[in-house]
């Protein structure tokens, strides 16, 4: 393909991106009626929606994590369900079960709350391993097996989960295999002074904004098709792969000091999700091509939960975020 043809293709694609981006601008405006500040969190939820990837939000209570997810579901014309994860939760409470009907003298399937477009898994780290295992199939295969019947989940299907990092009583660490299924893990921080003033005044006034569906699932599907077409240069591909490989073989990238802190590096899902998330980031910024800044901006959210920390890292209080920061600073951007 000549450079002239490529430039023309990108120009045409840019026009399509601007058309589709309009709907997501409306969506963001609708979400911001209820969510003040927290632009980082809202953008990551939209990237998860565009990339068809599950999102894990971690933060202390009261940061509007649950409200943001509920508001997103209300603003998109799709089915929503909420599951409050507790230590006594059973797999059947999530996926459903077989029920015997005396009238029909037969078993029938009662579907669980997992059968929705948007599933809010609240405090996901409170559920035991049996429930996490049931959720794994749904998250990866987009299907559920009840008895001897396997059923597909609705499209799109997103698990939007929250977890509390400070209260460790009655919680279970998410298995590495499950953490890896989340496209993004976002660490939510406190709102700034002026945003918190607005939140305080909104609650004190008793004003509860009404959220209306502003886009349809068809709009989401069309945007997803466009995401796959957004141009990713070979140099950007190499940049993404270098970043992921540096978590596995840091010594090959001049980062020998990190080797003792990493017990295992990011999986191939990191490369896949980093490229999809970078494309979604470009889309939200009205671009039809990915630039290195898109990759840098989303790298921490894609990598932080995919890096295994060694005992030495924990002893020296080295975090996955610090490791990602060093990798991003070291890897030369194209």
Protein traits:
334 residues; alpha/beta; two-stranded parallel sheet; 13 helices; 49% helix; globular
Q: What is the helix/strand order?
A: HHEHEEHEEEHEEEHEHEHHEHHEHH
| Beta-strand fraction estimate | 15-25%
Helical residue percent band: 40-55%
For the residues shown, what is the average pLDDT? 87
By DSSP, the count of extended strands is 13
- Report the radius of gyration as a whole number of Å: 21 Å
How does the overall form come out from the CA principal axes?
globular
Which class best fits the helix and strand makeup? alpha/beta
Number of helices: 13
The major β-sheet equals:
5 strands, parallel
Neighbour order of strands in the largest sheet? 3-6-9-1-10
First-residue to last-residue Cα separation: 21 Å
- Low-pLDDT ranges: none
Report on this model:
The structure is a single chain. The chain is α/β, with parallel strands linked by helices. The protein is built from 13 helices and 13 strands. It has helices spanning 3-34, 39-51, 65-75, 91-95, 129-141, 176-179, 193-204, 217-229, 234-248, 268-284, 292-303, 311-315, 320-330, and strands spanning 54-58, 76-77, 80-84, 96-101, 106-111, 118-122, 143-146, 149-152, 158-163, 182-187, 215-216, 262-264, 308-309. The strands form five sheets. Strands 3-6-9-1-10 form a five-stranded parallel sheet. A two-stranded parallel ribbon has the order 2-11. β4 and β5 (106-111) form a beta hairpin. α1 crosses α3, α1 runs antiparallel to α8 and α2 (39-51) crosses α10. The mean pLDDT is 87.
């Amino acid at each position: 393909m000549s450079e002239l043809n490529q430039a023309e293709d990108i120009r045409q694609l840019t026009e399509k991106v601007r058309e589709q981006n309009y709907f997501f601008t409306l969506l963001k405006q609708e979400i911001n009626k209820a969510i003040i500040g927290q632009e980082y969190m809202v953008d990551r939820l939209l990237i998860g929606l565009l990339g068809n990837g599950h999102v894990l939000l971690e933060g202390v209570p009261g940061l509007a994590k649950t409200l943001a997810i509920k508001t997103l579901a209300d603003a998109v014309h799709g089915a929503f369900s909420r599951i409050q994860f507790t230590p006594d939760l059973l797999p059947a409470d999530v996926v459903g079960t077989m029920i015997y009907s005396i009238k029909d003298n037969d078993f029938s399937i009662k579907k669980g709350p997992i059968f929705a477009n948007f599933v809010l898994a609240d405090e996901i780290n409170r559920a035991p391993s049996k429930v996490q295992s049931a959720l794994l199939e749904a998250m990866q295969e987009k299907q559920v097996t009840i008895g001897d019947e396997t059923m597909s989940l609705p499209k799109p299907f997103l698990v939007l989960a929250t977890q509390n990092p400070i209260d460790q009583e009655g919680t279970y660490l998410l298995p590495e295999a499950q953490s890896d299924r989340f496209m993004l893990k976002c660490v939510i921080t406190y709102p700034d002074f002026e945003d918190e003033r607005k939140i305080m005044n909104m609650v004190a006034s008793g004003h509860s904004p009404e959220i209306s569906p502003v886009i349809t699932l068809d709009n989401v599907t069309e945007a997803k098709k466009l995401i796959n077409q957004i141009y990713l240069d070979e140099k950007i591909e190499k940049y993404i792969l270098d970043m992921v490989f540096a978590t596995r073989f840091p010594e090959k990238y001049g980062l020998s000091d990190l080797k003792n802190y990493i017990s295992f590096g990011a999986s191939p899902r990191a490369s896949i999700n980093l490229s999809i998330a970078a494309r979604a980031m470009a889309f939200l910024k009205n671009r039809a091509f990915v630039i290195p800044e898109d990759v840098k901006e989303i790298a921490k959210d894609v990598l932080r939960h995919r890096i295994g920390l060694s005992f030495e890292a924990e002893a020296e209080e080295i975090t996955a975020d610090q490791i990602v920061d060093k990798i991003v600073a070291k890897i030369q951007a194209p």
